[in-house]
Amino acid sequence: MDKTIVKIKSTNESSYPIIYGEGLINNAFDFIKQYTKANKFLVVTNETVMPLYGSKLKKDNVEFLILPDGEVYKTMQTLNKIIDKALEVKLERKDAIIALGGGVIGDMSGFASAVYQRGIDFIQIPTTLLAQVDSSVGGKVAVNHPSGKNMIGAFYQPKLVLTDTSTLNTLDERQFKTGMSEVVKYAFIEKTCNANQIYNFMDFLKKNKELIILKDHQILAKLIKICCELKSAVVNQDEKDKGLRAILNFGHTYAHAIEKITDYKKYTHGEAVSIGMKMIFDFALKINSISKEYYKEAIDLINDYGLITRLDFMPDENAFYNAMLSDKKIENSQIKLIIPKSRQEVKIEAVFDKKLLLEGIL
After folding, report:
1. Could you tell me the CATH number of the domain that includes residue 348?
2. CA angle centred on 271, ends 267 and 274, rounded to 5°
3. Confidence of residue 10 (pLDDT cuts 50, 70, 90)
């Protein structure tokens, strides 16, 4: 068992631990009770995760809400179901909601926790690689809107993130690769995270490729630790997304547009991100922001993990551009991109050239 502490500068009350290790879910409440005074819990999960891990959390004072599985259900309508269930089981302000599942469950449960009775305790138990390395950390909680991804939400930090690496054993190959897209993202932004430690994460991912693909638990624990510490470093510097935190959206401006124009049905979030990262590297090469050598090294790393790098259809250019304009990082009607600058380093720039922006999608 190991842990990372997220220390939010604005208030000590917002600081919380990320505890990770193998088999932790079997004794989840031994940890949970250390970080909340709740007497009653509502576990929000989905129909995929419940049969696998729901029984681990069954207790007399625990209620369950089982939702459909998928990004398409990350809506206000589903959020209302969580609120309705909290009211039905009479959760009080001192009680807590536990998110058991991937990023969609975590985002919706966190948002419900933020608004229910003006805020109740929130616990994350992420069961996917994507959630364990990224979405469960940092306190961004939201639902999607037809106009764009994560348009309705809040910043609301959990009391605890409990990460059990053994839950990755039940991930299928597609979902594991979905998580690896966010993992690889951290390799490309590491230097700009301004963490206290140098990890050389690109080299780590290249050296340990075989063990990572085989889901070796020791290597996965190290991988999760590095990703959490890199994200924590960014969040600790910019909790409310006023500047530096934008780098965590590397590849995501294209990715969110891909998800929107396909109604969140064709690609997983991670698949959209890996395509988006390839697009932004293509863009960076065209504007001479990076060398050909680094471009090749980066694309080789994406390909090493079998990640998707191209759309399998030709999108309408205007629809794609309009989807990019609905991204949360738009400022003064300008598209702000996270652009590769050098090895493991990125920069944030507003981009005006529509034609150049769209060349990468073909």
Report:
1. 1.20.1090.10
2. 145
3. very low
